């Protein structure tokens, strides 16, 4: 049972009723690195029932950011490339990918939060709780 407080009712985590059932093809404009990430994460998200058609752009953005992390690392290692430029690019892409991955449940803490349907906030010490 969910606790009621001024922030509202905590929604139960669960499968999206409109979850996609099969992995769609990767968008054609994705780089090979981003496409590899698409093929890696989408089956997991589909299995968990967390992704619907409207979320695919979000997954695409995550895959693009992760692909850029790998590409920046490869370019940084190449002779003649401006190392500082690629380190900045890689850092920005890593931060973006980390934020997006947390929203998609691709890191351990967000995955636990999304999959923990028994979690219930305690209002015992909440001064704003409605009793």
UniProtKB/TrEMBL annotation:
Alphabetized Pfam families for the sequence: Terminase_4
Region described as Disordered: spans on this chain: 1-31
InterPro entries attached to this UniProt entry: Phage_term_ssu_P27
Domain of life: Bacteria
Protein name as annotated: P27 family phage terminase small subunit
Record organism: Paracoccus maritimus
